[in-house]
């Protein structure tokens, strides 16, 4: 059973086509946080932008709605900053860089500790990968070498954010997303949830709810993938 | 300078659209090998197929043209098999799995040794990634955790096989290939050569030649990428 203290918002993408950063999911975020203080973790550095730049984009998106955002990089004592956080948001970017940075700073166990103490955790993309067992189903390029692929392990499965269906017209011979996840299942047993852009999971009271307008794709070893519609996930789906 | 003993065929993809396995590049392979004995390394296991299945597909492609193919997995003493090889082909699949397997079997240094002794090395896709400095620019999913991202390092740069141009009509928010390589260059200094499907590098006498009908894309830190046409690569291009 998922720890009943966990409060998680596991977002496939921060931005959908034709909409600003976090705009499409803003109402859900405001409803989820239940605090106006947000500690942002900018370590995934999308496109290599700086921690300050990345934090500023979150401030721009959420300050107008009464949320005070601070960047974890700006604290000298980062463990203390996490222990004092009212809510945590780990943004997207490169999952390898994100996980390596958290391990190097010794913050993995600290984040686990506060989330087990009911601090809301919001992740998008790379930050959502981290809520699963490992980063073994990230789409990112391995630009740096983390000391482990083990993630925060709040959820008993793996995530594939930005899940993308195969393009029936493609002549490209690189692997499709589904082929990659099938390869993953030759060497790993956990369920993988492919979350399309515009979908997210909300986890509270040991219940996982798929939200957004799209279905999600569920992969298990040696089984044909299935599509699930938005709503509460039966434990059989992800076990 | 590239070791003058190296003889390398660095292929972006084994298969192009509308053509059989290795078919489009068969003449080049036969010309390159200069032997009829080929040791095939099936460890990258595309789509998770078995070593036997994978080796059979190489036999099917090359036996009719007089090449005897044996799979490295079938030798009890794999180091000895490599030391006795007349030519080596490392096929595509999952780069993480391939590199992890070679490290675990202790074969990295053995392969380096024979290639430094003029044994021809042919790689496609994941097998081509391995000719560069690291696997940090693979497109693959990190389905297993290798003990290092360091590759065979025959070439003083990194490869990105199956290089794919951004789709101007895409509404998907996942990173483009170019964005990913730019992220790589925030943390790594080596040149990255994006090899499109249907392109390959042939390396002999310290000379690198880009072959096939397409241009290749050259990425360096803090520089606008450039396209190079087929032909001999000036050292300035990849240094």
From TrEMBL, chains A, B:
<keyword id="KW-0378">Hydrolase</keyword>
<protein>
    <submittedName>
        <fullName>Dipeptidase PepE</fullName>
        <ecNumber>3.4.13.21</ecNumber>
    </submittedName>
</protein>
<keyword id="KW-0224">Dipeptidase</keyword>
<dbReference type="InterPro" id="IPR005320">
    <property type="entry name" value="Peptidase_S51"/>
</dbReference>
<keyword id="KW-0645">Protease</keyword>
<comment type="similarity">
    <text>Belongs to the peptidase S51 family.</text>
</comment>
<dbReference type="Pfam" id="PF03575">
    <property type="entry name" value="Peptidase_S51"/>
</dbReference>
<dbReference type="GO" id="GO:0016805">
    <property type="term" value="F:dipeptidase activity"/>
</dbReference>
<keyword id="KW-0720">Serine protease</keyword>
<dbReference type="InterPro" id="IPR029062">
    <property type="entry name" value="Class_I_gatase-like"/>
</dbReference>
């Amino acid at each position: 059973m998922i720890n009943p203290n966990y409060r998680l918002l596991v977002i496939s993408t921060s931005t959908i086509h034709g909409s600003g950063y976090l705009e499409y999911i803003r109402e859900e975020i405001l409803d989820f946080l239940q605090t106006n203080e947000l500690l942002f973790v900018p370590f995934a550095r999308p496109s290599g932008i700086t921690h300050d730049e990345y934090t500023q984009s979150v401030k721009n998106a959420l300050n107008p709605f009464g949320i005070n955002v601070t960047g974890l990089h700006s604290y000298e004592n980062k463990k203390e900053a996490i222990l004092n956080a009212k809510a945590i948001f780990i943004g997207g970017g490169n999952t390898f860089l994100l996980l390596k940075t958290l391990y190097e700073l010794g913050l993995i166990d600290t984040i686990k500790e506060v989330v087990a103490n009911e601090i809301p955790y919001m992740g998008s993309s790379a930050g959502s990968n981290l809520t699963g067992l490992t980063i073994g189903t990230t789409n990112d390029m391995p630009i740096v070498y983390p000391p482990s692929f083990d993630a925060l392990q709040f959820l008993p499965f793996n995530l594939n954010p930005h899940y993308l269906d195969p393009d029936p017209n493609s002549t490209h011979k690189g692997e499709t997303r589904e082929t990659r996840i099938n390869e993953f299942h030759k060497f790993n047993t956990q369920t993988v949830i492919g979350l399309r852009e515009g979908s997210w999971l909300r986890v509270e009271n040991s219940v996982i709810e798929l939200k957004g307008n799209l279905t999600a794709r569920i992969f298990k070893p040696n089984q044909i993938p299935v599509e699930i519609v938005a709503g509460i996930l039966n434990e059989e789906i992800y076990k």
